[in-house]
Design brief:
- By secondary structure, the chain is an alpha+beta fold.
- The protein has a single domain, classed as Nucleoside Triphosphate Pyrophosphohydrolase, CATH 3.90.79.
- The protein contains 2 helices and 2 strands.
- Helix content is about 20%, strand content about 10%.
- The chain is globular.
- The chain has a two-stranded antiparallel ribbon with strand order 1-2.
Length: about 120
Protein backbone atom coordinates (compact mmCIF):
# COMPACT_ATOMS: atom_id res chain seq x y z
CA UNK A 1 0.00 0.00 0.00
CA UNK A 2 1.19 3.51 -0.81
CA UNK A 3 -0.13 6.85 0.43
CA UNK A 4 -1.35 9.51 -1.99
CA UNK A 5 -3.52 12.60 -1.79
CA UNK A 6 -7.14 12.47 -2.99
CA UNK A 7 -6.98 12.92 -6.75
CA UNK A 8 -8.90 12.70 -9.98
CA UNK A 9 -9.71 14.34 -13.28
CA UNK A 10 -11.65 17.48 -14.10
CA UNK A 11 -15.02 16.74 -15.68
CA UNK A 12 -16.20 18.51 -18.87
CA UNK A 13 -17.49 21.99 -18.03
CA UNK A 14 -15.89 21.93 -14.57
CA UNK A 15 -13.16 24.30 -13.39
CA UNK A 16 -10.22 23.02 -11.34
CA UNK A 17 -11.50 24.32 -8.00
CA UNK A 18 -14.87 22.62 -8.45
CA UNK A 19 -13.08 19.43 -9.53
CA UNK A 20 -10.93 19.38 -6.39
CA UNK A 21 -13.97 19.84 -4.16
CA UNK A 22 -15.96 17.15 -6.01
CA UNK A 23 -13.10 14.62 -5.93
CA UNK A 24 -12.53 15.18 -2.19
CA UNK A 25 -16.26 14.65 -1.53
CA UNK A 26 -16.24 11.45 -3.62
CA UNK A 27 -13.06 9.97 -2.14
CA UNK A 28 -12.90 11.12 1.50
CA UNK A 29 -16.24 12.87 2.15
CA UNK A 30 -14.43 16.01 3.36
CA UNK A 31 -14.29 18.79 0.75
CA UNK A 32 -11.59 21.41 1.30
CA UNK A 33 -12.39 25.06 1.96
CA UNK A 34 -10.49 26.95 -0.75
CA UNK A 35 -10.10 30.63 0.08
CA UNK A 36 -7.17 32.89 0.91
CA UNK A 37 -4.00 30.89 1.59
CA UNK A 38 -6.07 27.72 1.40
CA UNK A 39 -7.01 28.51 -2.20
CA UNK A 40 -3.48 28.44 -3.54
CA UNK A 41 -1.89 25.53 -5.34
CA UNK A 42 1.24 24.09 -6.86
CA UNK A 43 1.42 22.90 -10.44
CA UNK A 44 3.56 19.87 -11.28
CA UNK A 45 4.34 18.80 -14.85
CA UNK A 46 4.98 15.11 -14.41
CA UNK A 47 6.69 12.70 -16.79
CA UNK A 48 6.15 8.95 -16.59
CA UNK A 49 8.73 6.95 -18.53
CA UNK A 50 6.37 3.94 -18.58
CA UNK A 51 3.51 5.80 -20.27
CA UNK A 52 2.95 8.07 -23.24
CA UNK A 53 0.66 10.21 -21.07
CA UNK A 54 1.87 13.56 -19.79
CA UNK A 55 0.40 14.88 -16.55
CA UNK A 56 -0.13 18.36 -15.17
CA UNK A 57 -1.11 18.05 -11.53
CA UNK A 58 -2.78 20.84 -9.59
CA UNK A 59 -2.20 20.44 -5.86
CA UNK A 60 -4.51 22.75 -3.90
CA UNK A 61 -3.45 23.61 -0.35
CA UNK A 62 -6.07 23.68 2.37
CA UNK A 63 -5.93 23.93 6.12
CA UNK A 64 -9.73 23.78 6.40
CA UNK A 65 -12.25 21.20 5.25
CA UNK A 66 -15.87 20.26 5.86
CA UNK A 67 -16.50 17.09 7.84
CA UNK A 68 -14.14 14.35 8.94
CA UNK A 69 -12.24 12.44 6.23
CA UNK A 70 -13.39 8.84 5.78
CA UNK A 71 -12.58 6.19 3.19
CA UNK A 72 -15.43 6.42 0.66
CA UNK A 73 -13.71 4.13 -1.86
CA UNK A 74 -12.56 1.03 0.06
CA UNK A 75 -12.27 -0.88 -3.22
CA UNK A 76 -9.58 1.61 -4.36
CA UNK A 77 -8.10 2.77 -1.05
CA UNK A 78 -6.93 0.76 1.95
CA UNK A 79 -6.50 3.58 4.47
CA UNK A 80 -7.15 7.28 5.09
CA UNK A 81 -5.14 9.14 7.72
CA UNK A 82 -3.28 12.34 8.56
CA UNK A 83 0.51 12.52 8.79
CA UNK A 84 2.71 15.38 10.02
CA UNK A 85 4.59 16.95 7.09
CA UNK A 86 7.79 16.36 9.04
CA UNK A 87 7.07 12.63 9.31
CA UNK A 88 5.55 11.37 6.05
CA UNK A 89 5.44 7.58 5.70
CA UNK A 90 8.14 5.85 3.67
CA UNK A 91 5.46 4.40 1.39
CA UNK A 92 4.25 7.84 0.28
CA UNK A 93 4.09 8.24 -3.53
CA UNK A 94 7.36 10.03 -4.51
CA UNK A 95 5.79 12.97 -6.37
CA UNK A 96 3.31 13.46 -3.51
CA UNK A 97 6.20 13.59 -1.05
CA UNK A 98 7.89 16.23 -3.20
CA UNK A 99 4.75 18.36 -3.44
CA UNK A 100 4.23 18.26 0.32
CA UNK A 101 7.89 18.82 1.22
CA UNK A 102 8.83 21.45 -1.37
CA UNK A 103 5.70 23.12 -2.72
CA UNK A 104 3.50 23.37 0.36
CA UNK A 105 5.80 25.88 2.14
CA UNK A 106 5.88 28.14 -0.97
CA UNK A 107 2.08 28.28 -1.54
CA UNK A 108 2.41 28.69 -5.31
CA UNK A 109 -0.47 30.77 -6.73
CA UNK A 110 -3.21 29.75 -9.15
CA UNK A 111 -5.89 31.71 -11.01
CA UNK A 112 -9.01 30.79 -12.95
CA UNK A 113 -9.97 33.24 -15.67
CA UNK A 114 -13.19 33.34 -17.65
CA UNK A 115 -15.16 30.69 -15.76
CA UNK A 116 -17.68 33.12 -14.29
CA UNK A 117 -18.51 34.46 -17.77
CA UNK A 118 -19.46 31.03 -19.20
CA UNK A 119 -23.08 31.00 -17.97
Amino acid sequence: MTYELPAGHIEPGENATDGVIREAKEEVSAPPVLRGESGKCAVMHRFNKDSSLIYFGLYFFSTEWQGEPTNCEPDKCGDVRWFPLSNLPQNCVPFTRRVLAEYWPQRVGYSEYGWAARS
